[in-house]
Amino acid sequence: MTKSVWKPFYDEQKEERWLNEMSAKGLALTKYTWMHYRFEDSAPGEYIYRIELLNDDFKSKESQTYVDFLKQSGVECVSSYMRWVYLRKKAADGPFEVYSDNDSKLAYLKRLSNFYLTFGVVLVAIAVVQLTWIIPGVTSGRYLWIANAVGLVAAGACGGAVLSIWARYRNKIERLKRDKVVYD
Question: Domains of the chain: which residue ranges?
Fold first, then answer.
């Protein structure tokens, strides 16, 4: 039996936790498209899921080489969306960590940090544009003003949330760098 769920996430760590909770309930992810998850029945806890941001688009040669490498390691790419891949591995095969050494973890955290910084700055820029449209909107009509105010609040709130994720990754990067110096 299949189950379809519409659920928005802007934090891949929360999304990954949720996918693993769904797996624990016996629902295995089979497909992802924008905010839409398709599951099928499976044994509870059969899979461990990871979400990863690739360097390049999923269809690029580099990404395909990487996904093929993962497949040889027993990791299945369940779905992809732009540069994001949804990976799973049988829980019976043991723990599932994509990055095991500090250098690869650091590179990946920097990639995530750059992604969230760019995304957050774009959202804040949209909020600033909305702000500049509010003042003329006051004189040109109530509905235009309301629409711009809602846009300002939505873009500003989303931008702030995304930038808080960026800050979390910056902190992880700094901790990993400190740990690397201590252990090297």
Answer: 2-93, 102-183
Is the torsion defined by CA of 25, 46, 31, 82 positive or negative? positive
Torsion angle of the four alpha carbons 137, 142, 145, 147, in this order, in degrees rounded to the nearest 10 = -140
Contacts of 109 (CB under 8 A, 6+ apart): 169, 172, 173, 176
Q: Which residues of the chain have pLDDT under 50?
A: none
29 touches 78 (CB < 8 A): yes
- CA distances to 134, 137, 140, 149, 150 from 143, in Å: 11, 8, 9, 10, 10
What pLDDT, in 10s, does the model give residues 85-106? 999 999 999 999 988 888 888 9
Phi, psi of 152 (to 5 degrees): -60, -50
Is the full-model pTM beyond 0.70? Answer: yes
